């Protein structure tokens, strides 16, 4: 079974691949691209006639008619009936994606104490959910093969809960994940070179795509959160990760580790000649366990916890300033516990960024919380499947 077989014929989310096709391509790639172009237009706009599709995609009416016939036969598109006639002549027949024909299984492995999953419709709405605690029989978090077994059990439960054919399974995993869905390293789970995508495909026989959880999260914000332009999503949890969309494409990096900012040293506490120290990396100030611990200590000492949140925000701003300067981003989105991130921490991040970048180049930079809440990775997993199987997002 090849990676293409697992991801589906639409080609998955390769480096530099635009998430949303918008124009025609060369003849040798035309069929699959044009198919995605029609599906993307219907997925985003809905209720379009064949003539509308030809006009909006730039494809010929003959090409659109041929593609629509194929998609109708596959059950991916449905006819909704005739549009009300605004002028004499036969009314046009409206089309849409068949939004109830398939469901998607999404899995989020990023929480420190549980694995979460859901069955979703094609618009990312949760229809059923399930979770398994990460804690093993001895009271410690499961790692290695024991953690993989918990993923398998969760996926089986979700597949059984689906009430329509499953389009595919999307998984957001912590750590560094390559394009074959192999988790190259996920220290918190004790994983190294775990071929999770192939494993789950062999288990279910369904198309599977596994990606880094922050990459899944940024896809959810892009598809469902109304994000526009070049953006970076910073996911704050047990660790710190980020997803980047530049020029409409997901950024992976040369070793699939783009966005791994949690282990970057921030500040010059130990002097300019200091060597790498885990006690000086961003996660030391910003991870959820570290922040919770600091707030508990402040409460026990009956002191103001605000300085703890502000320093975390300052450290984040220090880490992000070179990225913002290099990429001229239009938007930074924070994803994590709202009670920790929204307020003094976010304010300190914005203040630090403005102090450390040239104002006229980044005057319009927006820093905001995600609109997707705690289900952001699950909904991003749905986007992974939609893009891999249908070429839409």
Automatic annotation (TrEMBL):
Gene3D superfamilies: 3.30.420.40, Winged helix-like DNA-binding domain superfamily/Winged helix DNA-binding domain. GO terms for molecular function: DNA-binding transcription factor activity; kinase activity. Residues 1-20 are annotated as: Disordered. It comes from the Bacteria. Residues 36-84 form the HTH marR-type domain. The keyword Kinase applies. Keywords: Kinase, Transferase. Belongs to the ROK (NagC/XylR) family. PANTHER family: BIFUNCTIONAL UDP-N-ACETYLGLUCOSAMINE 2-EPIMERASE_N-ACETYLMANNOSAMINE KINASE, ROK (REPRESSOR, ORF, KINASE) FAMILY. This is Putative NBD/HSP70 family sugar kinase.
């Amino acid at each position: 079974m090849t990676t293409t077989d697992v991801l589906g014929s639409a080609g998955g989310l390769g480096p530099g691949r635009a998430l949303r096709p918008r124009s025609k391509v060369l003849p040798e790639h035309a069929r699959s691209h044009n198919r995605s172009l029609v599906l993307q237009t219907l997925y985003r706009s809905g209720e379009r006639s064949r003539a509308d599709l030809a006009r909006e995609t730039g494809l010929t009416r003959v090409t659109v008619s041929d593609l629509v016939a194929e998609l109708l036969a596959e059950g991916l598109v449905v006819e909704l009936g005739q549009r009300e006639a605004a002028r004499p002549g036969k009314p046009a027949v409206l089309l849409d994606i068949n939004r109830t024909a398939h469901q998607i299984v999404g899995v989020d492995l990023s929480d420190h104490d549980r694995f979460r999953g859901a069955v979703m419709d094609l618009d990312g709405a949760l229809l059923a959910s399930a979770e398994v605690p990460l804690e093993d029989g001895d009271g410690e978090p499961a790692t290695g093969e024991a953690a993989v077994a918990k993923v398998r059990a969760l996926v089986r439960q979700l597949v059984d809960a689906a009430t329509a054919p499953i389009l595919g399974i999307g998984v957001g995993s912590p750590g560094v994940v390559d394009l074959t869905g192999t988790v190259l390293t996920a220290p918190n789970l004790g994983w190294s070179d775990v071929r999770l995508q192939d494993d789950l495909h062999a288990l279910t026989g369904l198309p599977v795509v596994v990606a880094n959880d922050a990459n899944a999260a940024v896809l959810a914000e892009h598809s469902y959160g109304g994000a526009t332009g070049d953006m970076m999503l910073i996911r704050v949890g047990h660790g710190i990760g980020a997803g980047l969309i530049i020029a409409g494409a997901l950024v992976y990096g040369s070793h699939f580790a783009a966005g791994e900012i949690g282990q970057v040293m921030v500040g010059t506490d130990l002097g300019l000649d200091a060597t790498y120290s885990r006690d000086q990396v961003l996660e030391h100030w910003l991870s959820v366990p570290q922040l919770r611990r600091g707030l508990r200590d402040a409460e026990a000492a009956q002191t103001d916890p605000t300085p703890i949140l502000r320093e975390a925000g300052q450290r984040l701003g220090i880490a992000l300033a070179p990225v913002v300067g290099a990429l001229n981003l239009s938007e930074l989105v924070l994803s994590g516990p709202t009670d920790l991130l929204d307020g003094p921490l976010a304010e300190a991040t914005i203040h630090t960024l403005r102090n450390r970048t040239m104002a006229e180049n980044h005057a319009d930079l927006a820093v905001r919380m995600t609109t997707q809440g705690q289900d952001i990775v699950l909904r991003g997993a749905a986007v992974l499947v939609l893009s891999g199987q249908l070429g839409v997002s």
